[in-house]
Amino acid sequence: MEKITLTKVFSNNKDKEGKMYEGKFGNFYRVGIQCNEYGEEWINGFSNRQPTYGEGDTIEVTITEEEWQGKLQKKFKIARKEDLLEARIVLLEARVDKLEGTNSEAEPF
């Protein structure tokens, strides 16, 4: 998970024929972003609602690479509350391990 600062945001919920994008969980938006950390490269993702973030905002995302039609493309996923909490727990466990000089993975409760 990383924090990025957005420079451009594009979202659309309709295809070329003007038909709404539909998935098994309802309508969705295709979202493309550019950020300071990755320069002019577009990073794509999906959202079940219109994005509330815009240019200049800093957001937490997970960025992965995926091959599509023979080309590597970057994809992003907005961090959910559960993802943020899990990351905080991992950091806290590491701090406790350092203080106690132990490895919490090796010791059960």
List keywords for this structure.
109 residues; 2 domains
Query: What best-fitting shape do the alpha-carbon axes yield?
Result: elongated
Distance between the termini: 28 Å
Counted beta strands: 7
Number of domains: 2
Rg of Cα set: 18 Å
Low-confidence stretches: none
Largest sheet: 5 strands, antiparallel
Give me the side-by-side strand order of the main sheet: 5-4-1-6-7
Class by SSE composition: alpha+beta
Question: Fraction of residues in helices?
Answer: 10-25%
Per DSSP, the total helix count is: 1
Mean pLDDT: 88
Strand content: over 45%
Sketch the topology as an H/E string, one letter per element: EEEEEEEH
3D architecture notes:
The strands form two sheets. This protein has a five-stranded antiparallel sheet, with no helix packed on it. The protein has a two-stranded antiparallel ribbon with strand order 2-3. It has one helix spanning 81-100; strands at residues 2-12, 22-23, 26-27, 29-35, 39-47, 58-68, 71-78. It has two domains: 2-78, no CATH class; 80-109. The protein starts with a strand and ends in a 9-residue tail after the last helix. By secondary structure, it is α+β, with helices and mostly antiparallel strands.
Summarize it.
The chain has one helix spanning 81-100, and strands at 2-12, 22-23, 26-27, 29-35, 39-47, 58-68, 71-78. With 109 residues, the chain is of the alpha+beta class. It has 2 domains: 2-78, no CATH class; 80-109.
